Amino acid sequence: MSEEKLKRIQELIKTLNAAAKAYYVDGAEIMSNYEYDALYDELEALEDETGIHMSYSPTASVGYEVLSELPKERHESPMLSLSKTKERGELADFLGDKKGLLSWKMDGLTIVLTYKDGSLFKAVTRGNGEIGEIVTQNARVFKNIPLSITFSGDLTIRGEAVIRYSDFERINEAIPEFDAKYKNPRNLCSGSVRQLDSRITKERSVRFYAFGVVSAPDKDFDNSRKNEQLWLKSLGFDIVEFFEVTAGDVVETVGMLEEKVRENDFPSDGLVLEYDDIKYGESLGRTAKFPRSAIAFKWKDETAETTLKSIEWSASRTGLINPIAVFDTVELEGTEVSRASLHNVSYIKDLKLGPGDKISVFKANMIIPQIAENHTKSGSFLLPSVCPVCGGELLLKNDNDVETLYCISKTCPAKHIKSFVHFVSRDALNIEGLSEATLEKFINKRFLQHLHDLYSLVEFKDEISQMEGFGKKSCDNLMRAIETSRHTQLHRLLYGLGIPGFGLANCKLAADVFDTPEKILSASVEELLEIDGVGEVLARDFVAYFDDPVNRDEFLKLVEILDIEKSVITKDGLLSGKVFVITGSLNGYESRSVLKEYIESLGGKVSGSVSKNTSYLINNDAQSTSSKNKKAKELGVEIITEDEFSKLVIRAELM
Questions:
Q1: Which of the four pLDDT bands, split at 50, 70 and 90, describes residue 222?
Q2: Residues in CB range of 344: below 8 A, 6 or more apart
């Protein structure tokens, strides 16, 4: 054995372990799946050739040590990985003359559930395959898990906890900070299941799909994995969808599932094939890492060669400058692709990218465009010298050997994207079609620098209609929404400015007292203090906001652009003199802001905290131990549900 091969084995182990730790533990990505698989295959081949298998090699280990404060427990039987293949013919060879079950290889977190006397007793993560983390309380709040079943004996099963793409997108949409958004459903699921606070787990909509029975004493499945799966389904478990196959039709079935995977709402990184014959599969035994009763199939990534045109750099609200590869359009997995994330500066350097390079691109898990390989390796890329948005100074940071680029200008418009998001929100100017992602694109293209620039976007209509994600129709819809928003009310404009401490209710009260732009600009602290609910700190913040020349100029420019009508506040309505606080989830109203507007339209006031002045706390869960419920009970404030609130309004109408 040559010294070079041993050295290469050691290099590959170090690289692969670092990539796996970054992905599974830190939630970061330092190489593509394509590159990881290629290096893994190279390592496996070298180990087979030399006969050397290091104990810390990813081909020998089955996971990573858990790193949380959750209690640990050793599994009764090791949870092994599966051997894998990308060759469809190997699946037919694996089956031989046996029947098999072909199912999705879900990309989430494997969980072991134990039931005793018909009730959920324990839930443990896979962990490192031998020791997992106890997550029983979190499992109890999974969206679809049965807490009790009709089977009264001891039962232990395995399954995958996942977060659907639709839930993943919903969760990300609720996060205003672009860089705080989650990278993929798998990482979000792992973090959600391993939370120390089960309330957070509940909010994440984690689902569990069973795929195997570990132990069910005295239960006879007639030696069939299919019967085992159907029995789990009869107990109320959602099971991983499976298909019965033979050597004669398994390749055709894989082809069918390859088309179907694009329609799935759950993340999947391949398929699993196992023998239906339980005793036969168990008789085959296992290797140090793999059971011989099943095999994993990973999609052979469809790659396409193209030419790198450029690297685009876009700034985010944290100042991070994100690199994007722009290349000649190619078709992958049935869609046209021309852009791919490059993650960070180190990623670009490792690929040795440069304009004009011949590259291969693919879609990770048939969804996310990535660069698989750089054939030219020119390394001629240049880091931008200034921020692409504001022209400010850039800083190259190196954290844990990962280089990233940041804009350090405090006045960069990209860092103030939150102010744009707030300004176009429903309670403010209500401009539909301007998501945070869209606003960020416009800011990076320098279409937007100030709030009033929103009303000049029509000047860039042709460019916008050619942008990715836009077309003529969506562009026209956006322009109409912007034009519609010109007709607004003074309190909406005030709220949209984001004056410190002034929520929608206070803005309505201020607009009622100071009902013209001139009065707003000349308002004094003393006058503001006369408004119910406005204290000295808020009053001074309001005056200071408009004393700032930049804020004052922005306000005047918006006043000139907008058609502002007087805000009408109902003072003598049905709920006049009543103060409400809203907490918890709602059933009959789209959101708290909708209920808040309704209360205010009837003359009531909505506050954010419970005090002695509160008339009612609206909470559908009167037994909740929330701080607002506790405070209400301490002060003797009545807690009412939505239904009781509706009855209160009806009684007021009849009086």
A1: very high
A2: 323, 402, 403, 404
